[in-house]
Write a structure and sequence with these properties.
Elements: E1 3-7, H1 18-24, E2 29-31, H2 47-59, E3 65-70, H3 73-83, E4 88-94, H4 102-113, H5 116-127, H6 135-158, E5 173-178, H7 185-194, E6 199-203, H8 210-213, H9 215-226
Parallel strand pairs: 1-2, 1-3, 3-4, 4-5, 5-6
Length: 227
């Protein structure tokens, strides 16, 4: 039985992994911690705080774990694999980046100018995976994290530069990206090209947080990789 640690998107919570926990929990040991400042976890949030929290989870396990990450937490997973190589058995990374991009500054400016209530309304569909089933949960998680946490996360990603360190990652790596998530496609390709032996797969019909859009396919993809 493998140990799988799911890392949620910035502004979300561990609840976003409920379909995968339910699907994979009888075959693997599944953990889904809340990152600092998200869900039930106290803040503050930063990439350093998130990394520290994940390292703490890993150190509590008797064997190396598989990290499964989406969106901003992909960067946290990469940082963890670099900091704790002996504790990471594999990486499944979807819709993430290894470095800051020019458009990150535009996103930060838009967030700063947008009232928090409007921000929740604008992002809710994305964080719910486009489905009404998860809309209330996504809105609650966004309000809990708050605008300041999202800004901190985007600021951290904007300063990130891991391209020269990707070659140091030795864990088997599967890089995923939804076919509709065009804005993150170049970042996914960059990670796949930089991590030795990494495999990349583009998911037809999928968007950014496609573990909620196509939960069955996401769970099967993770299960097949881990096995």
């Amino acid at each position: 039985m493998a140990v799988i640690v799911f890392l949620h998107a910035f502004g979300s919570s561990s609840r976003a992994w409920r379909p995968q926990i339910e699907e994979l929990g009888d075959r693997h040991r599944v953990l889904a911690p809340d990152l600092p400042g998200h869900g039930a976890a106290p803040g503050p949030f930063s990439l350093d705080e998130a990394l520290a929290a994940v390292r703490q989870v890993l150190r509590g396990q008797a064997e190396p774990v598989h990290l499964v990450a989406v969106s901003g937490s992909v960067s946290v997973a990469l940082l963890t694999a670099l900091a704790e190589p002996a504790q990471v058995a594999g990486l499944v990374l979807s819709g993430g980046v290894a470095r800051g991009r020019r458009r990150d500054s535009v996103q930060r400016l838009m967030l700063r100018l947008m009232p928090e209530g409007m921000l929740v309304n604008v992002l809710n569909g994305l964080y719910a995976g486009g489905g009404a089933e998860y809309a209330d949960q996504a809105a609650q998680d966004l309000r809990r994290a708050g605008k300041a946490t999202l800004l901190t996360g985007l600021t951290g990603l904007g300063r990130l530069e891991l391209r020269d360190r990707l070659g140091d990652i030795g864990a088997p790596t599967l890089v995923l990206n939804g076919a509709k998530d065009q804005s993150n496609l170049s970042g996914a390709r960059e990670i796949a090209a930089g991590v030795p032996g990494a495999t990349m797969r583009i998911i037809p019909g999928a968007g950014h947080l496609w573990n909620l859009e196509q939960p069955g396919l996401f769970s099967r993809t993770v299960d097949e990789f881990v096995r």
